[in-house]
Amino acid sequence: MNPETLALIAQATEDTPADLGEHETETPEQLIGRGIIPDGYTRDTKTREVRPKKARGRPRNGDIPVPPVPDGPITRTADVAPDGKARAGKVRPPVPPWRKGVIAAGMSRLYKRAGRIVRAMDRDIGTAIMEAADDCGEAWDELARTNPRVRGVLMKMIAGGAWTSVLMAHLPILLAIMMKENIRRRIPLANMAVNFFNDDDTEGQEEAGEGDLFDLLGSLSPEDMQEAMRMAMGTMTRVVPGTVVRGD
Amino acid sequence: MRGEYDLDVIAPVANWEFFLAHIFDWRQDEHVGMIGPTGTGKSNLTYQIIPLRSFVTFFATKPRDTTLDKFARSAGFVKIPDWPPTKGKGPLKRVLTAEEMPLRILWPDARSLHSMDVQRVVFQRAIADIYAQGGWCVVWDEFWFMCTLLKLETEARVLLQQARASNISFIMGAQRPSRIPLELFDQATHLFFSRDNDEANLKRISGVGWLAAGPIRELVASLERFQFLYVNTRMGWMFRVTSPLG
Question: Which residue in A202, B44, B114, B135 has the most C-beta neighbors within 10 A?
Fold first, then answer.
């Protein structure tokens, strides 16, 4: 800063502002008594009386603060580091309310579609799936009524999408594998499905790639998945009596 | 002396080194706004004050920017096209921490006229993470472009109003004081105005609530080339300052 400027600032901060003059020692009441409206007061438009302003209002030109002469250099503190582990959570849309029959009809449609696909491979099982479609739809509807997370997933499945189509296309393969007794005995399919959702490491999920599949199933907790698996096993025993899927 | 005030007293001229060392007390949780027509040195001023912060993410929007490129090289910034920055490939891939990459220029590909959709998505992802993590200094050199064309006005308002508590500071540069969120004036602790003779702009600047209209108009209209009027909105102090060329 120029020495002249510093001198000007010093002078300005030491001197009494000229425009205040004798008013500086007078109270607002005294000023009002002399017919002067002090700073922060106004004449009421209705009563014509001088009263304090409701809001202070913008400063007058003469009120501009004069910057002080700095005492010394600014002491800067080290920045607080960002919390590297904090990641913005994905905001999920609210689950639509349960409406009687919507999920039952949708799931029944999906079962019938699956039945048609399976029938190409095994006529009896395919037909059985199609015949059980309505009952299965009702069962899923009841589960969706009590569990909003399952309801959210089912609503997305009913609405369709790329992943639903992919899952449907792989149904015959999945069924062929699951129908092999040796596989059912050795591989705990139900637990595998539950464990798939049991990973709390959200960062890992993101790195694996958040996509439609996680959008579709990611909101399910392990408990939800167990409940859904029980339901699915129940419907499977209706389709193929005597079916046992190892859960341990 | 003009009217009731002396411009040299209410807004003394300070040299840059003195300004940085003694006057510009910019804390981590304070926002900085810069208003001035193009070519008046806003970007240069940004580059001069950024080194005061340790963790910075610069949101770059232009297809090409040689000045920013040059600054990035000299100041140790890393250009990243997507958010979050990662290291490694396949299963070894992981997100870099703020300490590993403290100075970032987030620069999604903007070479196409229709790049804005991609830019918006990338920027939104970054803003969400930055908001969650806190501690970052966010730089929007093109505040109007970000708010209006990239439709990030809501995010800007949230950052301005809510992010100080998370130690996030926000540097905003705008060519005009109009058609941008008013929070820029309300929430920024430090404001810089460069010379502007546009009557509408002067009216807008002098209309900001806590400023005395007359001197501000006079000061902004009479600034020298590359000179800024600095206003500390909390204290009401004003200085005139010229940042050196980077």
Answer: B135
**What is the complex's ipTM, to 2 decimals?**
0.83
Task: Compute the count of residue pairs across chains A and B with CB atoms less than 8 Å apart.
Answer: 123
Rounded to the nearest angstrom, the gap between the alpha carbon of residue B63 and the centroid of all alpha carbons in its chain is 19
Q: Two tokens at B123?
A: 């920027």
The answer to whether B57 and B141 have CB atoms below 8 angstroms apart is: no
Is residue A208 within 8 angstroms of chain B, CB to CB? Answer: no
Side chain identity at residue B102, one-letter code: P
Chain A residues near residue B128 by CB distance under 8 angstroms: 88
The rounded distance, in Å, linking the Cα atoms of B83 and B108 is: 9
Structure confidence by residue, pLDDT tens digits, B121-177: 999 999 999 999 999 999 999 999 999 999 999 999 999 999 999 999 999 999 999
- Rounded CA-CA distance B29/B187 in Å is 11
Stated as kind and residue range, the H or E segment containing A50 is strand A50-52
Q: Give the contacts of B124 (CB within 8 A, at least 6 positions apart).
A: B152, B155
| Nearest-angstrom CA–CA distance, B75 and B67 | 12
